[in-house]
Amino acid sequence: MSREGLGLPRGIGQRDYGAMSSTAATTSDGNFGGFSPTEFISLSESIAANTIFVKQSWQFLEKANRTLGTAKDNQSLRDKINDIQTGTNQRIATTTKDLQRLTVVVRGGDKQQKLQVEKLTSDFKQVVQFYSKSQQSIAAKMKQVFLVNASQMDDLMGGETGIPGTAEQQQELQKQKQLQQSLQFEQDMLLEREQRFREIEANVLDVNHIMRELSNLASQQSEVIDTIENSIGRTVDNVESGAEELVKAAEYQNRYRRKVLILLIVAVILGLVVTGIIVSKLKS
After folding, report:
1. Which of these, 50, 111, 116, 277, could form a disulfide with 95 (CB 3.0-4.6 Å)?
2. What one-character DSSP code corresponds to residue 6?
């Protein structure tokens, strides 16, 4: 079955943006640096590209799930399912680290950038949820098909018996041995499929762990944005209070000036009166 016929994501085998960004973003001592517009753009583009990649993987699993258990079901399909999940899970883990790094980087940015990070996280979390549900459905379907195949194997092995005796019986015994060898090969294949089923089941558990990390990351981002809004609210209140204080100060200053002006007028009047009295006495 061809890669295109199965709807295999085009991103398989392409450049892993997230792996490069997360490696470049982390310092040697494990700490994170300050805000960098270039790094912010690079991480945002990588996360958006990986979100599309996970979405394509989810669509592939949905299509493959409809093929499992049908006449088109084969080992090649199951190998591709395992490869898709392995690669996608690695991309999800890398993108989760990129989101954690971006959350740290954007602390030095503005509110619009923080809202952009919150949207990237929300979109990525949503597509990972869809992908995780498809993984769980794939695991359940493969387990069901495995149990059916195992039951058919037991029926075949239990229904073939013979007692050696005549030449015909010897010939029949030889046929049975060949059949048993064939059944043993089929049983080995079933065991291999069971092992692959366990691998797929383990991949589902890994994604569930990442989902918990994404939920915690989304909560941290909400707290940061709430803190920013609260700070803005307090700043507005402080500005309004400052404006009121300035108005009051202006009123006090105007009152003070009026008082000084009145006192000057009174002093001038008193001076004129005193001067008039002195002049009148001198003339008399």
Report:
1. 50
2. T
Asked whether 57 and 9 are in contact (CB, 8 A), the reply is: yes
CATH T-level assignment (fold) for domain 37-151+178-245? Methane Monooxygenase Hydroxylase; Chain G, domain 1 (1.20.58)
**Structural contact between residues 200 and 82, judged by C-beta atoms closer than 8 angstroms:** yes
Place of tokens 């943006």: 17
Helices (H), the chain: 17-25, 37-67, 75-105, 111-159, 167-283
Instruction: Give the predicted TM-score (pTM) of the model.
Output: 0.56
List Cβ neighbours of 247 (8 Å cut-off, separation of 6 or more): none
**Tokens 């195992």, residue?**
150
SS3 8: coil
d(CA 246, CA 252): 10
Tens of pLDDT, residues 48-63: 999 999 999 999 999 9
Residues 6/60, Cβ–Cβ less than 8 Å:
yes
Instruction: Kindly report, residue by residue over 27-84, the tens digit of the pLDDT.
Output: 433 344 456 889 999 999 999 999 999 999 999 999 999 998 888 888 888 889 889 9
Amino acid identity of residue 53, one-letter, is F
Cα dihedral 61→204→13→126 (10° resolution)? 70
Do 145 and 73 touch, CB atoms closer than 8 A? yes
Q: Which of 42, 37, 38, 36 is nearest to 22 (CA)?
A: 42
Q: Where are the domains of the chain?
A: 37-151+178-245
User: Of how many residues is the chain composed?
Assistant: 284
- Residue 50: CB atoms within 10 Å: 26
> Which of helix, strand or coil describes residue 107?
helix
For residue 143, CA distances in Å to 51, 75, 83, 148, 228 come to: 29, 14, 18, 9, 49
